[in-house]
Amino acid sequence: MDPHSPTGDWPAPTADTPIDATVAVPGSKSLTNRYAVLAALATDASRLTRPLVSRDTTLMVGALRDLGTQVTQENVDDEPSWLIEPQQLRGPAGIDCGLAGTVMRFLPPVAALADGPVRFDGDPHARKRPMAPVLGALRALGVDITTEGADALPFTVTGTGAVRGGKVVLDASGSSQFVSALLLAGARFEQGVTVVHDGKPLPSLPHVQMTVEVLRDAGVVVDDMDANTWHVEPSEISALEVSVEPDLSNAAAFLAAALVAGGRVRVPGWPQVTTQAGDTMRDILDAMGAEVVLDRDGLTVSGTGEVSAVDLDLHDVGELTPVVAALAALAALADSPSQLRGIAHLRGHETDRLAALRTELNGLGGRVTETDDGLRIEPAALHAGTFHTYGDHRMVMAAAVLGLRVPGVVIEDVATVGKTLPTFTELWGRMLGRQG
Ligand SMILES: O=C(O)C1=C[C@@H](OP(=O)(O)O)[C@@H](O)[C@H](O)C1
Ligand SMILES: C=C(OP(=O)(O)O)C(=O)O
User: Fold this and answer.
1) 28 Cβ closer than 6 Å to some ligand 1 atom
2) Annotated catalytic, 319?
3) What ipTM describes this predicted complex?
4) What's the CA-to-centroid distance between 406 and ligand 1, angstroms?
5) Is the pTM of this model over 0.95?
6) Which of 32, 80, 172, 199 is least surrounded, with the fewest CB atoms within 10 Å of its CB?
7) Domains in the chain, start-ordered, CATH in brackets?
8) Which amino acid residue places its CA nearest to atom 1 of ligand 2?
9) Measured distance CA(3)–CA(6) in Å, rounded
10) pLDDT in tens, 361-411
């Protein structure tokens, strides 16, 4: 947590004039934590420039250190920079996953390569997040895992220093992270790994594509030609020398601000080509009435303050849902409801996001209903009130977007945004021309 960031309740600032701001967004959580895992499994030292420094990535670094990896965190030219030196992975260790899906899913296969027991636990709500498919898959590959109840946190992985590997079939309809987890460590398994997804459609596919791409960057051979099947060849993992792209999903709230308040927001360094799911925000904002321009300097979004209703399938980009739902709730003048579909798996995210968004938006006067696989948001005038955040960083971001237009929105436990963006309130205040 940034020592200067507010904690407790935070009155969300309104936007009294159109915005004209440039917002430099820190590095991607998903890329930072993938690179960190691969660096710990690599043959030599890796250098990550501009990694995200937040609760989720700090937990990842802490866990890798507990497993024996050396991580040196420095600031070079005012930017964070990490030197990650792989060592023989070892137990015993106790890993705090916090509420980070990437830590609780990506590290059990890494712990399986350690020599000794590694116990995993996390925040109270983390014990409710789905884990069974990845634990079952590891057991099928010969790994010893004991749980203390259901197949969820807390559990202990007892490695012997090597994993046989081979083919596993699992149902990853609850989270793409089950697949990514096995692929990230799979090159270090004796037979590599073949992962077959069998079940309802896999969510967040761009995140699996991101995993495949970072593995290829590290010299690993991955076959992803067939749908729902991935094969990782056994091999060494090469050291990485990478600069982390800005987190495009974290950029979503700032871009949304331009649409809601009118004016424009620029995000420098927006990649021309990326596997980040957050890139889809360009199309979503366009559909909601913004003007969106991507050029070599970055992304610029301009809006008039009017938000259009939308019917969107967010299956691939579920992490954008809270901010998109806030935008849809501000489409008060639209003559039709908005529908957000394909996101049943959000019930297993940081909190049950469908229930949380319905409850909190309705608490401000919204007319939101939950469907089997998403949300239906009818036009309604919103009013002041407290917006509860359930330990979910993206609930804070959604509430801040609402607060731009609805006076008197108070965001409960604003510090929870530190899961991925500890400097959120500071950046938000600066975007609005005020102190954060
Ligand atoms: O692998 C990743 O970095 C992520 C995958 C997605 O998870 P789900 O597939 O569980 O939605 C995404 O929502 C999460 O924010 C990050
Ligand atoms: C679902 C998310 O995170 P996690 O990596 O904890 O699953 C998210 O950031 O929206």
Assistant:
1) no
2) yes
3) 0.99
4) 30
5) yes
6) 199
7) 10-26+246-431 (3.65.10.10), 29-234 (3.65.10.10)
8) 349
9) 8
10) 999 999 999 999 999 999 999 999 999 999 999 999 999 999 999 999 999
